[in-house]
Amino acid sequence: MDWRKDPAAWRQNSRRRLSATLTLTGVLCILACFFGLTVGGVPLSLHQVSGALLGRGAPVIRTIIWQLRIPRILLAFSVGGLLALSGTLLQVLLRNSLADPYVLGVSGGAAVAALLSLIGGLPLYWVMGNAFLGSAAATFLLLLLTRLTGPITPTRLLLTGIVMASGFGAIVTLLLALSPDPTLHTMLFWLMGNLGYGPGARLSLLALVLAVVLLWPLAGPLHELLRGVDAAQSLGVHTARLLIGLYLVASLVTAIAVTDAGMIGFVGLIVPHMVRFAVGADHRRLLPLAALWGGCLLVLADALARSLVAPQELPVGVLTAFLGIPLFLVLLARGTRS
After folding, report:
1. Of 77, 162, 173, 209, most Cβ neighbours within 10 A?
2. Comparing C-alpha atoms, which of 19, 14, 81 is closest to residue 281?
3. Strands annotated E in 25-101
């Protein structure tokens, strides 16, 4: 429907779509949480889960729910929300619908630092801390290299990031080839995405809430930036500061997600497209809904990873790839026909 032909009907249709999307989002969050609580190495019934949530039932079931599954669900939700939020920002920043949180090499810096820590036999908290420092160093290096070659623009950021990501990928391959056998499995599992090593969801949940709150006032400038840097500047947007700020926020939330869960692909790529298809490109709606949908998607994927071949656990990054590829193809096909 073209809003210029019938603005009133267009607004009414937009409100209906938003109401349906919000209802779907609420249902999806509830279903994802219950699915994450009931499935796993020890399947539980809804009666057992509800009893444990109310403080009743066997102590072992209460332990499984409160000490294992609820923290895991919170971590999965926060990491998925961070990845989806980062993907949304980078697709605006780079004006590229295929941009995702790993395109600029930030995750590569985290991976190199984490693998070096694992090879050195450092404890888990050092591995996580060094992964965050590696991503921060990669962020600084990308901005420095981009600035040395000229003004910071989306094209320069993208090209420099692709080169850096390729370099970090080569270093990761070299480290895997040279690493001792006892640490190789842990390295591979972390690289493919795993929520079992996470230090907890407090930092990632706090980062997700703060990112959504801080980005909310920028919804207007983000929408103007979609028209291009020159068009945004003509409308009074300080594009240089906005580009650097967006990149820093996207890099920071990606760094936290990678530190907590390793490399989990496709969430940051497909979720922004799904939300845009449902509610349009208004970032006042897009940013919070992307965070919610990304969180729900990763909760579902992690529950499947824990249950498909139980008692063994699959890397959640493999599940998100299997889920993401057909979803992206469906969205691409529908977008081509529309």
Report:
1. 77
2. 14
3. none
Please report where in the chains the tokens 């703060």 appear, as a residue: 210
The pTM of this model reads 0.88
Alpha helices in 218-282 (DSSP H): 219-225, 229-234, 239-261, 267-279
CA separation for the pair 41, 328 (Å, rounded): 30
Region of residue 15 (left: phi > 0; alpha: psi -120 to 50; beta: else)? alpha
pLDDT of 295 reads 95
Q: Is 122 helix (H, G, I), strand (E, B) or coil?
A: coil
CB atoms near residue 315 (< 10 Å): 21
Single-letter code of the amino acid located at 254: T
Q: Give, as one character, the DSSP assignment of residue 65.
A: I
Q: Average per-residue pLDDT in the chain?
A: 84
Cβ atoms of residues 123 and 334 within 8 Å: no
* In contact, 87 and 268? CB cutoff 8 Å: yes
Amino acid 7: pLDDT: 58
Q: Worst-scoring range by mean pLDDT, 32-36, 62-66, 149-153, 156-160?
A: 149-153
DSSP state of 6: -
Q: Please, are residues 246 and 321 in contact by the beta-carbon 8 Å criterion?
A: no
pLDDT digits (tens, 9 = 90+) for 100-149: 888 888 888 888 988 888 888 887 778 778 888 888 888 889 888 888 87
Which single residue is written with the structure tokens 């599954």? Answer: 69
The CATH superfamily of 77-337 is ABC transporter involved in vitamin B12 uptake, BtuC (1.10.3470.10)
Domains of the chain, residue spans: 77-337
Q: How many residues does the chain have?
A: 338
Give yes or no for residue 61 having a pLDDT over 70: yes
Looking at residue 318, what is its pLDDT? Answer: 86
Question: Is residue 77 a contact partner of residue 298, using CB atoms and an 8 Å limit?
Answer: yes
**Structure token digits, residue 299:** 């909760």
| Residues contacting 285, CB < 8 A, separation 6+ | 18, 275, 279
Contacts of 286 (CB under 8 A, 6+ apart): 88, 272, 275, 276, 279, 280
